[in-house]
Recover the amino acids of this structure.
């Protein structure tokens, strides 16, 4: 073996690896956009006008930008939740249920706590408490799954799906029953509005963008820091990459699994809590449908990297948000966006197609099927 | 090999990896029916060259001809088509599949009437099983087509790989360090099979670090160093010493030099330990012994007699059924690895890719795998990356780990260099006891020399060493006392100076009725 004189510094390595990480998702998006354009043309639409509408509708004005950020906020939190679990070797399909529970409990604390105490609560206490309870609800729900995985080996995919059903049906009951908005005119399954002291102040008057978006970016940074710079992150990643080596290294694998699920659920719960405190000021059945599932797509597209998750979230948000404008300009159905998203995902997941189309050599390690020895 | 007909010829193979020139203008040829041994230091580029021949890596330049025909250089399919088969350093089998299913994988019979018809692939299990049985019989491989691969011992898994290659009509067989994981008996069987194959016209490329084997089975020997071929020799004109020098480029001292041990306090005390293996069978059956500070206790024995389970139990990786053990006077029976490590244990695990490394982590991160949270590397919960990197720089230098930098992932290192990462990490920690399972497996002679020196140096500093090795040579040269394990029991313990290879061999084979046990 000889070492090249052009041996690189670690910072170059990081840049290089970041580029490698971004290349496939970028090409996947590009390919999906081209293919999407062809589909639009086939159904006799104008692809250029459609994409123009999409971009204008998502980034073309202050209002459009604000709305894109509004869409992106829960995506980022829920995407981080799924990504963090991925890093720990866990597949959290339950973000949807954790998120909804977070929203419901936030709403409960938001509207009911002043009633229970019989007095107003200052915002500085009420708002954080409302968010924290939402986070705790999500965390608790996911922790159960983590516990089952650690101590019984029960697979988290099955259990998070089960827990989703339990959560979503319970919520449906709560919103139609004990927690239903008692306004005599209300026929919708929704909670009452939360108190002013549990609401986040607006960032810009007249726009719906709220501090939750800023918080989401900060939390993304925090998740990155925890994963890459702390002993806890080291433990989570080690358990995720090689549980046997983690055990050998003295890491408490069971505890780490539970912590990972708990943190993941906490992030999902936060997504719900911020929808309530920052945007809707209540929870309504149907407000959160699909965020938790889109989050899986977002985590995959973002390669489970917090920065990737933020970018993927903004992309998904832009597509959802720009769809109306696209429809208005071209009369194409909004569902086209789902097709586009599906195409992107397809190409990210089946990256062999992308590697083939663009002749990119795979440089990942080969799959080791049995662990023999050596390398 | 009477006629020197060339079946495979590689010319000017150059292969670069980021920061590494793994193969540099390598020429290599193989005669029909010969066993051609490939020797070289860890990281010399042997596996890389073989991966090029097998079409897994596309070289930056060079060409390969098989029986005069140019081979397409980036497709294992084409390699297989030309009759090249490979048994990798790590196997590529699916553990939950049967032997037959593994062999069918990727070689499903293609039942097309005409070549341009839609491929109609049919999985004809019976037909394959019959052919596997026939091959197995023909070459004396003794492979059961219906066995589940995961339940087979490594020696047999390896033969499944060989059958797999033969099933695809391999005429040229590449064996990458096949004997590293075999017991001496299994290795003997393999050599017999290899000769059986060459008699029938198969040509074999054989990679190993064991010079004795090379001298015994090879017809020709090619030595690589730093990506280049430095010479070709025949066993007749070579000795272990001359081969070692050719590989390393300097004189290698093949025997370990050490002073008599000065054992003091008992560090590890094991009392009537009973442990079950993965299948739930009792594989450590009432083992008792002690290791003192400043001595090396070697556990000899044919692999699979409970050594693995013993090491795993003592390091907290495996449940202990009954009995107990103390480390520095603390009873640590049934505790998880962390408290044991913190009491002063370093552990070189037997299965390096499973326990010893996180292959996707950088070399630097792997070098703190057990210590990342210690004040040396972390302030509170924050890992001090500069400390981690400095530690890696130091160890890479000390232990001569051949890697382009501390930041490449461990999975990109050659097999032997992966092992060195683990050994460097474990032997550099401040500990009272070292449990070393097959510490030099897959290492070249130069590295073995260095690691043996380190182990003796630790002993002389007052560390207790429990050495578990399938290499009788290693046991003989490092140990101060030797215990022999047979069927889960320690059947004899002797001082090194009273031990003979013959007697140890007998005990290892189960002839312990006559054994005295002066512990
Ligand atoms: N996939 C890879 N990516 C980057 N570098 C690699 C890769 N494979 C091998 N190398 C580098 O190429 C060099 C040669 O490695 P190779 O595996 O061929 O060594 P080897 O002679 O088989 O050694 P060993 O005896 O330890 O198995 C090493 O320095 C290794 O780090
Ligand atoms: Mg190798």
């Amino acid at each position: 073996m000889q070492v090249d004189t052009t041996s690189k510094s670690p910072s170059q390595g990081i840049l290089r690896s970041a580029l490698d990480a971004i290349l496939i998702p970028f090409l996947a998006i590009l390919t999906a956009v081209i293919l999407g354009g062809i589909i639009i043309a086939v159904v006799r639409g104008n692809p250029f006008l459609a994409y123009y509408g999409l971009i204008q509708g998502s980034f073309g004005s202050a209002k459009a930008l604000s709305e894109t950020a509004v869409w992106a906020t829960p995506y980022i939190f829920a995407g981080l939740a799924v990504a963090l679990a991925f890093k720990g070797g866990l597949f959290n399909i339950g973000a949807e249920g954790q998120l909804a529970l977070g929203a419901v409990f936030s709403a409960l604390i938001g509207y009911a706590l002043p009633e229970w105490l019989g007095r107003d609560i200052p915002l500085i206490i009420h708002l954080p408490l409302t968010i924290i309870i939402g986070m705790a609800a999500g965390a608790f729900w996911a922790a159960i799954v983590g516990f089952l995985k650690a101590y019984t080996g029960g697979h988290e995919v099955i259990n998070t799906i089960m827990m989703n059903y339990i959560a979503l049906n319970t919520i449906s009951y709560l919103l139609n029953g004990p927690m239903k908005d008692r306004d005599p005119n209300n026929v919708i399954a929704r909670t009452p509005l939360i108190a002013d002291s549990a609401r986040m102040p607006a960032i810009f008057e007249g726009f719906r963008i709220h501090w939750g978006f800023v918080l989401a970016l900060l939390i993304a940074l925090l998740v990155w820091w925890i994963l890459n710079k702390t002993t806890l992150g080291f433990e989570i990643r080690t358990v995720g990459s090689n549980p046997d080596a983690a055990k050998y290294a003295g890491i408490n694998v069971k505890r780490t699994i539970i912590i990972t699920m708990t943190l993941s659920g906490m992030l999902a719960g936060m997504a719900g809590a911020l929808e309530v405190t920052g945007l809707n000021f209540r929870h309504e059945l149907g407000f959160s449908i699909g965020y938790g599932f889109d989050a899986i797509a977002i985590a995959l597209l973002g390669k489970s990297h917090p920065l990737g998750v933020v970018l993927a979230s903004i992309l998904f948000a832009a597509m959802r948000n720009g769809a109306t404008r696209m429809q208005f300009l071209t009369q194409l159905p909004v569902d086209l966006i789902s097709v586009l998203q599906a195409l992107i995902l397809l190409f990210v997941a089946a990256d062999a197609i992308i590697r083939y189309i663009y002749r990119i050599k795979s440089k990942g390690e080969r799959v080791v099927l049995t662990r023999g020895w050596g390398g | 090999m009477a006629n020197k007909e060339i079946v495979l010829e590689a010319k000017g193979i150059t292969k670069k990896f980021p920061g590494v020139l793994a193969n540099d203008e390598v020429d290599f040829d193989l005669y029909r029916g010969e066993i051609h041994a490939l020797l070289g230091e860890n990281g010399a580029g042997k596996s890389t060259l073989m991966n090029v021949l097998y079409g897994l890596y596309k070289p930056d330049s060079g060409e390969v001809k098989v029986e005069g025909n140019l081979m397409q250089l980036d497709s294992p399919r084409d390699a297989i088509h030309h009759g090249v088969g490979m048994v990798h350093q790590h196997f590529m089998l699916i553990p939950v599949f049967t032997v037959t299913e593994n062999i069918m994988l990727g070689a499903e019979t293609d039942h097309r009437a005409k070549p341009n018809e839609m491929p109609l692939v049919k999985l004809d299990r019976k037909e394959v099983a019959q052919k596997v049985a026939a091959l197995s019989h023909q070459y004396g491989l003794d492979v059961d087509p219906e066995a589940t691969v995961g339940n087979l011992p490594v020696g047999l898994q390896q033969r499944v790989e060989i059958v797999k290659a033969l099933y695809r009509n391999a005429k040229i067989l590449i064996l990458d360090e096949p004997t590293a994981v075999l017991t001496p008996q299994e290795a003997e069987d393999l050599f017999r099979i290899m000769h059986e194959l060459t008699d029938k016209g198969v040509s074999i490329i054989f990679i190993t670090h064991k010079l004795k084997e090379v001298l015994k089975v090879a017809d020709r020997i090619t030595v690589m160093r730093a990506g280049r071929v430095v010479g070709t020799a025949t066993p007749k004109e070579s000795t272990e010493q001359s081969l070692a020098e050719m590989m390393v480029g300097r004189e290698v001292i093949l025997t370990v030099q050490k002073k008599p041990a000065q054992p003091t306090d008992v560090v590890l005390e094991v009392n009537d330990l009973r442990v079950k293996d993965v299948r739930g069978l009792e594989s450590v059956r009432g083992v008792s012994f002690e290791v003192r500070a400043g001595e090396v206790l070697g556990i000899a024995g044919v692999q699979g007699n409970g050594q693995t389970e013993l090491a795993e139990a003592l390091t907290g990786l495996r449940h202990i059924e009954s009995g107990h053990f103390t480390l520095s006077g603390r009873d640590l029976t049934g505790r998880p690895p962390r408290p044991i490590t913190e009491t002063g244990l370093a552990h070189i695990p037997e299965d390096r890719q499973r326990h010893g490394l996180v292959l996707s982590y950088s070399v630097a991160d792997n070098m703190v795998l057990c210590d990342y949270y210690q004040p040396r590397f972390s302030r509170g919960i924050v890992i001090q990356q500069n400390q981690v990197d400095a530690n890696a720089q130091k160890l890479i230098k000390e232990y001569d780990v051949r890697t382009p930098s501390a930041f490449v992932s461990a999975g990109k290192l050659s097999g032997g260099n992966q092992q060195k990462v683990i050994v460097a990490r474990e032997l550099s920690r401040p500990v009272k006891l070292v449990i070393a399972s097959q510490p030099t497996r897959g290492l070249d002679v130069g590295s073995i020399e260095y690691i043996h020196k380190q182990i003796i140096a630790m002993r002389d500093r007052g560390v207790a060493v429990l050495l578990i090795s399938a290499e009788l040579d290693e046991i003989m040269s490092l140990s101060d006392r030797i215990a022999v394990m047979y069927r889960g029991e320690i059947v004899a313990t002797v001082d090194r100076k009273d031990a003979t290879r013959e007697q140890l061999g007998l005990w290892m084979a189960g002839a312990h009725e006559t054994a005295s046990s002066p512990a």
